[in-house]
Automatic annotation (TrEMBL):
Keywords on record: Hydrolase, Magnesium, Manganese, Metal-binding
Any single Pfam family the record assigns to this protein: Exo_endo_phos
Organism: Erythrobacter litoralis
Gene Ontology annotations of biological process type: DNA repair
PROSITE patterns: AP_NUCLEASE_F1_4
Stretches assigned to the Endonuclease/exonuclease/phosphatase domain: 4-260
Site, Important for catalytic activity: residue positions: D230
Protein name, per record: Exodeoxyribonuclease III
């Protein structure tokens, strides 16, 4: 079973790149972030034409997540378990943003609980947006504890907007004041690992130096000035079955690409 995460940075602008990636790499389960589309306007027909089932949790113009499962490989449509974590946005009266979608993904080899997330950026900090980020991470930890208690094979993945370690960024100095690298952000992420979740990319790349994001500005892609903010966390039931992880870096270099590269995990179930 191959499970992947991809911050697509606007499904309508990047649809050709998404369809290419799906056709070329064929993940069993694909989790998308920043679809920037309402559910009713999401281009599901084009994705379904490739044989994928589609479940979305969207909102107009911002945020939004989706989970795709490969029907051609024998996967059932994703079964929704929960959408949202009950945390309202930083603006008064804004309501909850579309950032979390949890499903059961069932294929020929079994069922895996998959939680797709787009964690708040938190900039500028300090301020309401950073406070929102930390509150959201606290709610995520509570939800992950509930999943843990079910003792099901589980994968929590997506754009965490956290650079966990100094060797996860091209320049510590360049990002030192960013919300992605603040001690509070890193501490909240570290607590998830302390609860027993396994960082798949870190486990198989213990020396760091793996990037998943390159900004559009200042020639970041051309200079390889990137960092790692897209993560895959595994419950013990999945960590014991991890076969491989990787980053589809080449897809970041294509025309009109997302500023993120897809990150994937292979499990033996």
């Amino acid at each position: 079973m191959k499970i992947a995460t991809f911050n697509i940075n606007g499904i309508k602008a990047r649809l050709p790149r998404l369809l290419e990636w799906l056709a070329e790499t064929r993940p069993s389960v694909a989790c998308l972030q920043e679809i920037k589309s309402q559910d009713e306007t999401f281009p599901g027909n084009e994705i379904e034409a490739l044989g994928y089932h589609v479940l979305t949790h969207g909102q107009k113009a911002f945020n939004g997540v989706a989970v795709l499962t490969d029907g051609k490989a024998g996967f059932e449509p994703p079964k929704e378990i929960q959408r949202g974590l009950g945390i309202e946005g930083p603006k008064e009266g804004e309501g909850e943003q579309a950032r979390y979608l949890e499903v059961d993904a069932t294929g020929p080899d079994g069922t895996v609980r998959v939680a797709c997330l787009y964690l708040p950026n938190g900039n500028p900090h300090p301020g309401p947006k950073f406070n929102y980020k930390l509150a959201w991470m606290a709610a995520l930890r509570t939800r992950m504890a509930a999943i843990w208690a079910e003792e099901v094979p589980a994968v929590v993945l997506g754009d965490f907007n956290v650079i966990p370690e100094d060797d996860d960024v091209f320049s510590v100095r360049a990002m030192a004041n960013d919300a992605l690298m603040q001690p509070e952000s890193r501490g909240a992420y570290a607590r998830l690992l302390g609860d027993g979740w396994t960082d798949a990319v870190r486990t198989l790349n213990p020396r760091g130096g793996v990037w998943t994001y390159w900004d559009y500005q200042a020639g970041a892609w051309q200079r390889d000035h990137g960092f790692r903010i897209d993560h895959i966390l595994l419950s013990p039931e999945c960590a014991d079955r991890m076969r491989a992880v990787g980053v589809d870096k080449a897809h970041r270099g294509r025309e009109k690409a997302s500023d993120h590269a897809p990150v994937w995990l292979e499990l033996s179930l």
